[in-house]
Amino acid sequence: MTCAAVAAALPALAADVTFVMRNEHPNAVEVELYSQDRDYVWPGNNQVFYLDDGETKQIPLSCNEGESICYGAWVSGDRGTYWGTGPDNAETCSDCCYVCTGGETEEINLVE
């Protein structure tokens, strides 16, 4: 077996990252976090993280070391008003992705 085959057989190293999200929009916001390296969504199972207006929430994730994770957020009941990759990871963004290396993100402000 080559070194590459051995490395491929090893499980991915786990890490944790905490997304710090603040809702500065006057309406409630729903958030999902999307892996860009595998088919995985947090919280998953058709659930969302829910932030009331003015609420700050820390969202801890267990992820694979080095994995790229992007946030998608939208006004509850209005999937057309969104931040990041939006609902279902459908949009592109320039500054809404973070690498899973431990620690926490800066405060991500969702503003009107």
TrEMBL record:
Give the protein's recorded name: Mlr4654 protein
Q: What is the lineage of its organism?
A: Bacteria, Pseudomonadati, Pseudomonadota, Alphaproteobacteria, Hyphomicrobiales
